[in-house]
Write a structure and sequence with these properties.
4-stranded antiparallel beta sheet; 5-stranded mixed beta sheet; 612 residues; alpha+beta; 42% helix
Length: 612
Amino acid sequence: MVSHRKTAQPAFDPRTVKEHIVETPLNEEMSKSFLEYAYSVIYARALPDARDGLKPVQRRIIYQMGQMNLSPDRPYMKSARVVGEVMGKLHPHGDSAIYEAMVRLAQPFAMRLPLVDGHGNFGSLDDGPAASRYTEARMARAALGMNADIAEDTVDFTPNYDNKLQEPTVLPSAIPNLLVNGGSGIAVGMATNMATHNLGEVVAAAKHLMRHPDATLEDLMRYVPGPDWPSGGVIVGRSGIREAYESGRGALTTRSVTHIENVTARKKAIVVTELPFMVGPERVLERISEGVKNRKLEGISGAIDLTDRHNGTRLVIEIKTGFDPNAVLAQLFRHTPLQDNFTINNVALVNGRPHTMGLKEMLKVWVDHRRVVIRRRSEFRRRKALERLHLVEGLLLAMVDIDEVIQVIRSSDDAEAAKTRLIAVFDLDDIQAQYILDLRLRRLTKMSRIELEAERDDLKQRIEELERILASNEALDGVVIDEMDEAVAAYGTPRRTVLLDEDADGGLVPVTAHGDDGVSATALAAARTAATVSSAAADVAAAAKAAKKAGEDNATATALQIDDEPCAVMLSATGLIARTHEDAVERWENRSGSDARTKDDQIVSIFRTTTR
């Protein structure tokens, strides 16, 4: 019989365990950890780089889509696959965060120049997008400009999160994305909220700044008079814009574009065709409904949203009989998002540090970035051209006596011996000899020699041109300006937002941007689908100013749709006033003797004036 005896185990003694405990004061640990977290949020998440105007996740999306060759002329690819590539290779965070960033890059109502071409439901101002497994995407045309020449050593690369791949620290950015598409983000202790602008206007200002480095803000605002929202609308007053362009912070007022239509013979309606930036139709209708219930809004019998993808925004607000539509519109501006305020806070990363920048500084950062990109690209192309010229010259040297080259190779014991003999016989270097050994026999024809001589001459001309660019700052700036013009021609669109500013008489008039020749390059009102938008908006602003002076707080837009036209006013003997056509004055003054006044003629006075 076998007996099993348990071996006694020694009791656990915590004193025998070696411990390494470092005592740290709580306030020091909290301070250190919080600063690291804050820096990570500021630098790697919330704030865009001032050079390309992109946050890290956006930059990784655009770069990876370029690596996947999802160009605008290629078929769409499932968004989930794009998100997976970005998440697996460059951005080790949640897929929902990556997809939300990609969706915003594809929304035409959020981006003045979308960088992603989305296919499917990418959301609206009131609704979110479909899941990534249902939608498809590819690069938009403007994204080609963001990735332009990235393979030619134009920007620095850094290892990705697992040190297996490389990713760019910034994109070449042939378009001024920071100003054109703006952006928003909330970091730790700071935030950014940047307005969108027109590409052609920003490029015109950048060109002016390159030619006149000491240009003032007023000079630049001749080219960039103000933001240009993707949704259009009207910006009233430019004091807030001027303040934001000067200090980096400011606020401005945006209004919807509206007009009044006859629904029936006696019933009118206010029709909204453009809304302020990032304001959706459902939000407007909800606020109208609340205002009617709370009796803040009167005279509204109904409101309906007729917006669709073919006709664009169209909100119809029906007015009760007996109410002045202009007075109702004034109440709508006051109590609903049909008039909204936008606060500008231009915070972006410059050399890895957050800066609050005005218009001139933002333009300068982008121009300097483009200069660096063009210089690095020119150096890369010159280096490649010199390497190719070196090989072509070696091959041409060998083709002078190609039979001897073949004989040297055939009589050699191995490739290394053949290379050594080629170097000795034909006065070649190691690179040229290896290139000749790797050459296919079909290149050794008479036609190939002619092609090589033509290639040699072309390479010499190209190298000479690149050296001229690198040797002269003026020549380099010329290339930068030419590529700016190419970007405007390829991706530019007319201005959509009307800007109103005070004139010498205190009224509000539309503002135009100017080109380099000093004449109007972008007539703001001409860029609109409705020819009367600017005049109607000017009437709104003028009525608001007049009402404010008169102390009529609730009637800020009573003259919205009344055109200031010539007319005649008649006064009767009983004190009644009538308005008629201005020709009535001339007919009254030139009446014949047979038309002399009788006792029944009640007109005691008539004079010319205007309807306002």
